[in-house]
Amino acid sequence: MLFGRFLSGTAPALVGQRLYLRQPLSADFETWAALRAVSRGHLQPWEPSWAEDALSRDGFRRRLAWFEKIKRQESGEAFFLFARRDDSLLGGITLSNIRRGAAQCGELGYWVGQPYAGQGLMGEALRLMMQHCFGGLNLHRLEAATLPENVPSQRLLLRAGFQAEGIARQFLKINGVWRDHRMYGRLADDPGL
Fold it and tell me: What angle do CA 163, 82, 161 make, to 5 degrees?
């Protein structure tokens, strides 16, 4: 099993049955760019517009710099998902907009590569992330948003114990258009974690 090489490094990992989460590293660029390229048609309908250099090394460096910035500011954390069996990159999950004080909450975003969609991997990753957020980070609430037509993402959130909370009008600019989003929330003391 190869995944142990990442557990002994500086990037802490969250380990599940079939996968583990760890912070992205510059050495991940080639596998990340290849997976995103293969998955472009699968991902673009649900994401902000891709920059012209989205899959370039410079684009990846900017992404890593943003990940480092939110970690340093304690406003978020980013992880890549890897298969335990062979260290294949599967996708990513990000906690952002952490609000402390009276709120103690943050927002989750995630993506899975097209070859790995529909295999329950993101469900496992989401459970690991929730345990980290509610346990290690001591958050009280997690939020997530999906496009109304993104039924697989909505099912994922409902299976993970999130509750639908309504529609946020023109919440995010997705693929160049301001889009309404269905909002979901989960509390630390909701059952089923």
Answer: 10
pLDDT at 193: 72
Which residue range is the domain that position 77 belongs to? 4-187
Joined together, the tokens standing for residue 157 give 């959130």
- pLDDT tier at 11, thresholds 50, 70, 90: low
**Cα–Cα distance for residue pair 99/76, rounded to 1 Å:** 9
pLDDT, tens digit, for every residue of 144-179?
999 999 999 999 999 999 999 999 999 999 988 999
Is 193 part of a structural domain of the chain? Answer: no
- Closest to 28 (Cα-Cα) out of 79, 110, 89, 71: 89
Asked if residue 192 belongs to a domain, the reply is: no
Residue 82 lies in a domain: yes
pTM for the model: 0.91
Number of domains forming the structure of the chain: 1
